[in-house]
Amino acid sequence: MVLPGVVGFKLTGKLRNGVTATDLVLTVTQMLRKHGVVGKFVEFYGEGMGELSLADRATIANMSPEYGATMGFFPVDHVTLQYLKLTGRSDETVDIDFEKEPIGTGNDGKSIYFKDIWPSTEEIAQVDTRIPSHGSIHKDSPAAKYLLERGVDRRDFNSYGSRRGNDEIMARGTFANIRLVNKFLKGEVGPKTIHIPTGDKLYVFEAAMRYKADGYDTIVLAGAEYGSGSSRDWAAKGPMLLVELAYFNHGGILPFVIRNLISSQH
């Protein structure tokens, strides 16, 4: 399992009168975009952290898609403990030894430990094969070319997750995950496919556009886990956009996502 890099963001002082957490988070976002934190964890720390309420911290952490990070978080301190008390929990809530203490009880009355529900390395790798990608936009990808053509600097590409409201980017990012395995490529890992008529190896989006020009209909064959997880909305919308873009001049062709037709056993 590849662990993400962690970027520390030190907070000092306190907000002046009239300055809100929104003002702060916009400044933080600007600074982190300039630094570059795509695919990383951002930990906020420092004495200035104690001047922020839990709501202010949540505002900053929840903006992680905007500054491109996988997540933003604050360490536990007295503000965290105060919140736990206000919500009916004690200080001991954050002092659980997950190796020795159960986190709950199952329907059979047996204790449940954290290790019982935490996925294995193999399972994490499978979950990380997202359709579409949430990660950084590769410099040579169709999405990168689209942004460059519109004057967007590479350092401002950010991630697919932060641009999920842009259908042009997400159509290009639907099959852009670098961990995808396309059986047309005989096990090769990467976001590409074979253009059947010519044998050319292309990004999936580029192949779809070439099929458009040649007047071919296309179909997506996917396994049982296709579209599972947090990206399931774009797992449906992405292929729809690809086919709609590819066959726009034909009035639109209904795309099919066939589950369970191809499995790893065949």
From TrEMBL:
GO molecular function: hydro-lyase activity; iron-sulfur cluster binding; metal ion binding
Segment forming the signal sequence: none
The keyword Lipid metabolism appears for this protein: no
Pfam families xrefs: Aconitase (PF00330), Aconitase_C (PF00694)
InterPro entries: Acnase/IPM_dHydase_lsu_aba_1/3 (IPR015931), Acoase/IPM_deHydtase_lsu_aba (IPR001030), Aconitase/3IPM_dehydase_swvl (IPR015928), Aconitase/IRP2 (IPR006249), Aconitase_4Fe-4S_dom (IPR036008), AconitaseA/IPMdHydase_ssu_swvl (IPR000573)
Domain Aconitase/3-isopropylmalate dehydratase large subunit alpha/beta/alpha: 1-94
Residue intervals of the Aconitase A/isopropylmalate dehydratase small subunit swivel domain: 144-241
One example of a Gene Ontology biological process annotation: oxoacid metabolic process
Top-level taxon: Eukaryota
Cofactor(s) the protein requires to work: [4Fe-4S] cluster
Keywords for this protein: Iron, Iron-sulfur, Metal-binding
Family designation: Belongs to the aconitase/IPM isomerase family.
Matches recorded under PANTHER family: ACONITASE/IRON-RESPONSIVE ELEMENT FAMILY MEMBER (PTHR11670)
Full protein name: Aconitase A/isopropylmalate dehydratase small subunit swivel domain-containing protein
Organism this protein belongs to: Ensete ventricosum
